[in-house]
Each structure stands twice: as structure tokens, then as C-alpha cells.
Design brief:
By secondary structure, the protein is mostly helical. The protein contains 26 helices and seven strands.
Amino acid sequence: MFKTLVARPLVGLKRLVRNDQLLTSVAALVVGFAAAAGAVGFREAIDAVQWLFLGFHHELVASGARESDWWRIMLAPAAGGLLVGLITYWLMPGRRPQGVANVIEASALRAGRMSFRQGIGAAVISTLSIGSGASVGREGPAVHLGAALASFIGRPLHLTRSQSRTLLGCGVASAVAASFNAPIAGVFFALEVVIGHYALSAFAPIVIASVCGTIVSRMWFGDFPAFRLANYEIVSFLQFPAFALLGVACAAAAIALMRLTAMVERTSETLPGPRWLHPAFAGLIVGIVALWYPEILGVGYEATDNALKEQYGFQLLATLAVLKILMTALCLGAGFGGGVFSPSLFVGAMVGGSFGLVASHPFPHLSSGHGAYTMIGMGAVAGAVLGAPISTILIIFELTNDYRLTIGVMVAVVIASLITRVWHGPSFFADQLKRRGFDLQGGHDMAALRSLKVHDLMRQDHVTVPPEAMLGTLRDRLRQAPLNELFVVDGDDRLIGTITLEELGDAAFDKSHDQELCAENLARRSPPVLARSDDLQKAIRRFGEVDEGLLGVVDDQDGTRLLGCLHERDVMRAYNTALVNLRAEEHGETL
């Protein structure tokens, strides 16, 4: 019923609006309000679940936890983890939570199309995770929900690949803007992380959606920054070496967070026992740690705000930084739903604050205060983890509404991002996709190529011969074969080998052996082949390795039944077409 109510007016809208750019802009308006409403509903749902599990529904989680019963704080994350594990195991594809990485995958490999049902399921899992106290963030799930809503709204419009990806970016931008009250950051996060370019054809609709998200957020939550700062400013430019060193320290923290998460995830997959129990065990550990350090529960914005206000000493800052890295890696690796942005801000604040106390000690008159280092550290760790330095810098500015430390934030973010990319990888999301078999290295050019499969270009013009075919027959069949290559197959179409003119050698011109040599004797065994499900990036790499213009295509089961062949020229033509379309899209020439 809901789908019908939404689909009918959208189809009517497409008939009414003929201009593609106008259609996308109007759709962006609808998506902007829908994704923002989803983000608001998501936050309200977290408050309700938090009241159910922890006994309070405000954002001062650490303060509320100190006033609650100890057994409740210890058991709430475990109970939430048990529900998360069961829902994930029985309802989610791949039996894992979903987040921003799935949005990036949908944009790069599935033309911006996502499952609405899975989007709702992921939101429920993340709501239970955050509300029960798991050490995860809420912004990533809001982004995933906004993108799923955008895909759902765009489906009845039958949009082109470019339009679908743009609409996906609109959902992301609106969700970010509504979550952070940060319209500029919402635009650049969607363009930098999801779309991959800044063409006007994508820029204008995404701006519209981000503005809509901001309007809804300010109407519901009010217009104020997430964190309120003291009057920090750069006292002396001699601090810039310290800002650069802070970038190095933040890179180390970001790498530790990402690598520990990956390690916990790998370990969780090999542990005996049912997988759905792992979040419950992780939640129990989080609950026990929270008895002494309740700051690590949930998104941790209260502790981050206290660090910005310089209310923590060095020992507590350093301890909370280590514990947050460990607990976030444990929760995400064990299977809790949730994002990584809020934990990154938390870790960055603690690393920056503790670093600032040390850096300010020798020359206190030259220091801007360790609160300034806290703010810079937030941006540096988050930028390195997200792999989005531009949008992260803007998010920090809009979260704090303070532009006086602009240069310091930029220096630390750039250094942390560069070190992380060199020594670890592009981002936390790229790590997740790579562990699932989707390597987005090489950018959207390679991603477009990976979205095409061998079976899309496979031909049936190959020439086959039986194993008993004699040399004379082979000579005649080679004249008919593309690129002078024969495929030797048995009665069940199973590939035995290949024969080329070059491999025949002198026998190709010596007819005295026509009745002595057969295909089975002359065939090259174990020839290079491709599976029908391989993508074109793998096909290009394979063609380069063997230096051949034609490869056989086999089935995916046992890899021996010949289905067809793939020509290198067809692959290169498809690659060129994909590049032309991408360049045209980036220049706003197509949608």
C-alpha cells in the first residue's frame, strides 16, 4: 500500500516534467525532505530504545549511566547485542549490518540502486545498537537510511544510471545535513564520498536536498551547533609544527581503529559457536567497561563536548582514547550496527586533548589551549577514517560554528589523511568493501568497469572441435575461427584445451601428418579462461597477463564447461564507452 501511494504520484511527476534536469531537481526536493524525516525519526527511535534499555532518553549518556543501576548499564548492551545478532542473522543479506560502505557500493557498482527493505532493517539494527549503549555512531546509519529512501523514491521514475546516482547522493546529503545541522558538509560529503565528482548536473540537486535536510533539522531540533566552544584562536604560528605532529598522532589512532576493527571481524568469523551470539558477548564487555568509564557508551557526544571544554585531565583523555578505539572496534567487528564517524570524533578529541596538554606544557604562553588541539584532533582522526578530508573539515566547522582554527584543522587533517592512505588504505569504508570482495581502488573509473560482467560481452562465434579431430580438419577449421584459435571440447562441452596456428608450428604446413596427429595431441592444456561472472577489470588484467586477443568463457561451478568467448577488442570498446560516459557525466553533459 505504501509503495503504491508513493509510486503513483512519482510516475505522474515524470510524465509532467519532461526536462531531465528539472525532473532530477524536483525529485531531489522530495528526497531531501524524506531523508531528513528519516534521520529525525531515526534519532527519536534511538531515544526511545535508550529509555527502554538504559532508563533515560537524553544525549547525556555518561551522566545518565552514572545515575542508573549498575546491573542495567552492564547488561543493556548485551541484551541489545542479542537482539541485533538475531535480527542480523535471520533477516539481513550476508548476515551482517549495513552502512555507508553499502551506499558507496550501490553508487559505484549498482547504478545507485538499493533495497528499501534492507534499508529499514539496517536502521532497526542500528537503532537497537546505539540505544542499548554500543560504542558506535549514529550518522552512518542515517546516511544509509537516507540513501535507501532516495533509491526507493527514484525507482518508479526509471531514471538513468547518472540520475539514480545523483538521487542517491541527494539522500546522503540530506541525511548528513539533518544529522549535523551542516548543509555545506552534507553537499561535499555526498559529492566527495558517494558521487565522486562535482559536476553541476549533480551539484544542483544535491544542494537542494541538503537545504531541505537542514530546514527539517532546524525546525525539529533547533538551529545550534552540536558542540559549543570557548574562544579558541591561533595565538602563535609557531604552533604549526605541533599541529603537524598532531596530524601524525591522529593518523596512528585512525589506523589503529581501522585495523583493530578488521582484526575483530576476522576473528569473529573464525570463532566457534553461533555467529548471532557475538554481538551479545561484545555488548557484555562494553557494559563491564562502562561501569568505570560510562563515557564510552553510545555516540559519546557528551564526553567529546567535555573534552572541548577542557574538563578532562591527561590520564582520563588518554584512557578514554584507548578504550574508545577498543570498544568501537569490538562492537563493529562483532556485528553491531552503527557508524564510525561519532567514535572518530570522540577518539580525535581525546587524542587531540592529551596531545595539547603535552605540547602546551613547555611554552604555555604560545599555546591556544588544549581545547583547540581537541578540535583539531577531531577533524584529523575523522578525516583519516572517513577518507573524506574536504567534507570532514567542513563538518568540523559547522559542528563547532568556529572558523578561527581553520588553518590548524586543515594542516592536521591533510597530514593524517595522507599518512593513513599511504600506510593503511583510503578509508574505513574501503576496508569494509575490500573484505567483502569489492575493491574500489582506482576510483569511479574502475568501479564502472567492475559493474560490467563478462557475460554482458560474451560472444558465441568461437569454433570448437572434438578431441579426435585430425590435423587436416583442424587446418580447415582454423581458417574459420576468429583470431585463428580453436577450442577443443568433449561431448559435454567441457574444455580440454585450445589450438592456435602458432602452436601447430611446422605441422600446420606439413600435410604428411594429417592422419597421425589429432586435436587431443596438439591442444594446449589448461588454457587461460574467464568465468562468466568475472568483471571487466579482471578481464583486462587477464588479457594483459597472457597477451592474447581471445579467451574462453567457462561456467562458474567447476570452471570447465565452455559457454562462449570474449574478445579483447570488445572489452576495450566497453571500457572506452564507460570512460566517455563518466567524463560526460562529470562535465554535466549527460544525466
